TrEMBL record:
InterPro entries per UniProt: IsoCit/isopropylmalate_DH_CS, IsoPropMal-DH-like_dom, Isopropylmalate_DH
Protein name: 3-isopropylmalate dehydrogenase
GO molecular function ontology, one term from the record: 3-isopropylmalate dehydrogenase activity
Keywords assigned by UniProt, alphabetized: Amino-acid biosynthesis, Branched-chain amino acid biosynthesis, Cytoplasm, Leucine biosynthesis, Magnesium, Manganese, Metal-binding, NAD, Oxidoreductase
Gene field: leuB
UniProt feature coiled coil, ranges: none
Pfam families: Iso_dh (PF00180)
Catalytic activity: (2R,3S)-3-isopropylmalate + NAD(+) = 4-methyl-2-oxopentanoate + CO2 + NADH
Chain residues that bind substrate: 98, 108, 136, 226
Site (Important for catalysis): 143, 193
GO annotations of cellular component type: cytosol
Listed EC numbers: 1.1.1.85
SUPFAM superfamilies given in the database record: Isocitrate/Isopropylmalate dehydrogenase-like (SSF53659)
Isopropylmalate dehydrogenase-like domain boundaries: 6-353
Organism listed in the record: Kiritimatiella glycovorans
Length: 363
C-alpha cells in the first residue's frame, strides 16, 4: 500500500461542497480506523472557479488532477452561470477535465438496498433483483463532436452540434463493458439509435464485430434508446451491463436513478486514463443547495468506487456496508423521507456513516 494517496478535491457548486465534505469525513474515518491514508488538496472547479479565476477549469487545476492518485468531484453549474456560453460554462470545465484525464469509460452502477424498496416509484416486484451497470462513453459523441455553432438572427437563427464517434472510441469502451459483463452476469445490452443515425450504425457494427472476435462467451443484445428508456422503467431487472454513448448514457443513468427513488443514491467512476475521476451522477441541485437536505450517499459511494480503483477493497466494502447499516437503521435525508423514517441532514448522515466505518474497517 502507498504511504498515502494524493486526492484532489473539486467540490464545485451548489450541493457539491456539502456532499464532498461528507465523503472526505468518511475517508478520514477509514484512516482513523487503520485503513488507507490520504493527502487532500482542494481546488476550484465550475462556477466557483469562474468567479475566482475566470475559468471553470484552470490549467493548474488540470495539472494537479493529472498528477493525483484520484480526483473527487462534487458537482458544477447553477443558475448564476446559466447565461454563459461555450468553454466559459461550468459544465464545459467538467468536460475538459474528463477529456484531459482520458476518462472515456463512465461506470454508473444501480442496485437497491432492500430497505429502500418502498421508496421506489415502481412496485416491489418490478425492482426485485435490480443490479445494473451503465457503461457510458464519456469523452466523445455529441458532447465533444465538431463542428458546433450558432448563427443568424430571428427566424433565420440556427444552431448545431455533431454526434461523432470513431470505431476506436467505440471499441475501447465496448471492451470495458464486455470485461465487466464477464465479472458479472455475462450480458451486455448495447443501446443506440441505429434505426436513424449513421453514427449509431457504426456503433452497432463495431460492438458486434468486437463481440464476435473476442467476447462470444458474453450475451450481446441491442436496443434502440427510446425502447431502452421504457425497458429500464418497465423491467429493470433484465439488465446486467448497459453499454451506450455519452448523451444516451447521461439520460439513461438519470432514468435508472428513479428505480431507487432518488438521484442522490447514484455514484460513478470515470476511468480510462492514469487518474480516475469519481463523481456522483447528480448535478449541483440548486433547488436544495445550502439547506442540509442533499443526500450525500451518491458522493460517499463514489468515494467507495475510488477506494476500489485504488486497490483498497476492504475499505471500499466497509464504506458500502456502513452506508447500508445507516439506511437499515431507518435514517433518511429529505429526498427519501417517509412518515416512518428518522430524518437526517446531509452532515448527520455523513457522520453516522463515518462512525460505522470506524467499527467496520478490518472486520
Ligand atoms: N456532474 C455535474 O456536475 C452535473 C452538473 N449538472 C448541473 O447541475 C445544475 C442543476 O441541474 P439539474 O438538471 O437540476 O440536475 P440535478 O441533478 O442537480 O437535480 C435534479 C433533481 O434531483 C435532486 N437531487 C440531485 N442530487 C440530489 C441529492 N444528492 N440529494 C437529494 N436530491 C438531489 C435535485 O434537488 C433536483 O430536484 C445545472 O447547472 C446542471 O448543468 C447536472 C448534472 C451533472
Ligand atoms: C457535463 C455534465 C453536466 C453532464 C451530466 O449531466 C453528467 O455527466 O451526468
Ligand atoms: Mg447527467
Amino acid at each position: 500500500m502507498a504511504d498515502h494517496y494524493r486526492i484532489v478535491l473539486l467540490p464545485g457548486d451548489g450541493i457539491g461542497p456539502e456532499v464532498c465534505a461528507e465523503a472526505v469525513r468518511v475517508l478520514k474515518a477509514c484512516t482513523e480506523a487503520g485503513g488507507p491514508a490520504f493527502a487532500f488538496t482542494e481546488h476550484n472547479a465550475g462556477g466557483v472557479a469562474i468567479d475566482r479565476d475566470g475559468d471553470p477549469m484552470p490549467d493548474d487545476t488540470l495539472a494537479e488532477c493529472a498528477g493525483a492518485d484520484a480526483v473527487l468531484l462534487g458537482a458544477v453549474g447553477g443558475p448564476k452561470w446559466d447565461e454563459l456560453t461555450g468553454p466559459m460554462r461550468p459544465e464545459s470545465g467538467l468536460l475538459k477535465l474528463r477529456k484531459a484525464l482520458g476518462a472515456f469509460a463512465n461506470l454508473r452502477p444501480v442496485s437497491i438496498p432492500a430497505c429502500l424498496a418502498d421508496h421506489s416509484p415502481l412496485k416491489r416486484d418490478r425492482i426485485a433483483g435490480v443490479d445494473l451497470l451503465t457503461v457510458r462513453e464519456l469523452t466523445g459523441g455529441i458532447y465533444f463532436g465538431q463542428p458546433v455553432g450558432r448563427e443568424g438572427e430571428g427566424d433565420d437563427e440556427r444552431a448545431w452540434n455533431t454526434m461523432l464517434y470513431s470505431a476506436d472510441e467505440i471499441r475501447r469502451v465496448a471492451r470495458v463493458a464486455f470485461e465487466w459483463a464477464r465479472k458479472r452476469r455475462g450480458v451486455v445490452t448495447s443501446v443506440d439509435k441505429a434505426n436513424v443515425l449513421e453514427v449509431s450504425r457504426l456503433w452497432r457494427d463495431t460492438v458486434r464485430a468486437l463481440h464476435e472476435a473476442e467476447y462470444a462467451d458474453v450475451e450481446l443484445n441491442h436496443l434502440y434508446v427510446d425502447n431502452a428508456a421504457m425497458q429500464i422503467v418497465l423491467r429493470p431487472a433484465q439488465f446486467d451491463v448497459i453499454l451506450t454513448g455519452n448523451l444516451f448514457g447521461d439520460i439513461l443513468s438519470d432514468t435508472s436513478a428513479t428505480l431507487g427513488g432518488s438521484l442522490g443514491l447514484l455514484p460513478s467512476a470515470s476511468l480510462g486514463g492514469g487518474t480516475g475521476l469519481f463523481e456522483p451522477v447528480h448535478g449541483s441541485a440548486p433547488d436544495i443547495a445550502g439547506e442540509g437536505k442533499a443526500n450525500p450517499l451518491a458522493m460517499i459511494l463514489s468515494a467507495a468506487m475510488m477506494l476500489d480503483d485504488l486497490g483498497e477493497a476492504n475499505a471500499a466494502d466497509a464504506v458500502r456496508r456502513s452506508a447500508d447499516r445507516v439506511l437499515e437503521a431507518g435514517y433518511r435525508t429529505a429526498d427519501l423521507r417517509t412518515p416512518e423514517s428518522k430524518s437526517a441532514s446531509t452532515s448527520e448522515l455523513g457522520r453516522m456513516i463515518a462512525e460505522e466505518v470506524k467499527d467496520r474497517i478490518g472486520s
